[in-house]
Amino acid sequence: MFKLDSVQMPQQLSQAAHDREKVFQWIVDLCNAETREIALSELSSRRDIIHDLGPMIWHTTGTIAALLFEIVSTYQFVNPPTMSLQQVTRLCNALALLQCVGAHPDTRSQFLKAQIPLYMYPFLHNANKCRNFEHLRLTSLGVIGALVKTEEQEVITFLLTTEIIPLCLRIMETGFELTKTLSTFILQKILMDDNGLSYICQTYDRFSHVALILGKMVLALEREPSTRLLRHVVGCYVRLSENSRAREALRQCLPDQLKDMSTFSDCLARDQTIAAWLLLLKNNLESVMPIDVSPGVPSLVKP
């Protein structure tokens, strides 16, 4: 048995080294227009098992430029929407590789400093509801979702300087379930950051826009329930209720469906966290904690 293991070990190491060489070759192939499509496909399909793929891509000369070229060269097909399935698949593979770079702790800061997430925003702006573009939106949101999942303040600080909140709100209102869910997840993560919560509650316009879309989503969820989506919507409400001025406004604009635990009884039975959050939301809104009435601080209640 010992001899068999001693023979297998060098073979396994040799195979691992060979696989590593193929990965490096595919990364180099990204810089060649003739080999890029295959390299995109091969690397994207292995991104979950190559844990340092992000840094490998970032530190290889020319690869980020090649990936950004893949993105920018498709803008002309966004409006009017004329992308083929092959183009969308190739583009989504490029976005998935960029997601690896942004999600890795060793390259995330450089990824943000280079403002690479902004390259995805044209795809989020597009409202075409065909399957290809919905998949493209979902993949683009995945890049942002991987960033906010880290819960790092640097990520939220960067996103607050961009238009990600109104983009997410529009998708939350008009998208399909998966893109709605991911957009709401991103908004929830932004709200979980103190700076993000303060930003949204800073003005009546910002808060009212968020409250309006969340309210519409509750009405839609009453008609077509989704436990996963409801969880993120309720999570947003709970976090908003932790801001004193937003809490004052929510007492007037919280949808009745969230006050009655029976409305989403099936969802609550499947996810006890939602039930706990609704109770927390109720307790927060019934709280008598003081409201910030400092001079110059606007009310979030409808004038």
UniProtKB/TrEMBL annotation:
The record's section on SUPFAM superfamilies has:
ARM repeat
TM spans (from-to): none
An annotated GO cellular component of this protein is: CCR4-NOT complex
Q: Which domain of life is it from?
A: Eukaryota
Its Gene Ontology biological processes?
Answer: mRNA catabolic process
Q: Which InterPro entries match?
A: ARM-like (IPR011989), ARM-type_fold (IPR016024), CNOT9 (IPR007216)
Q: Where in the cell is it found?
A: Cytoplasm, P-body
User: Coiled-coil segments, which residues?
Assistant: none
Family label: Belongs to the CNOT9 family.
- What's the protein here called? CCR4-NOT transcription complex subunit 9
- Origin organism of this chain? Aphis craccivora
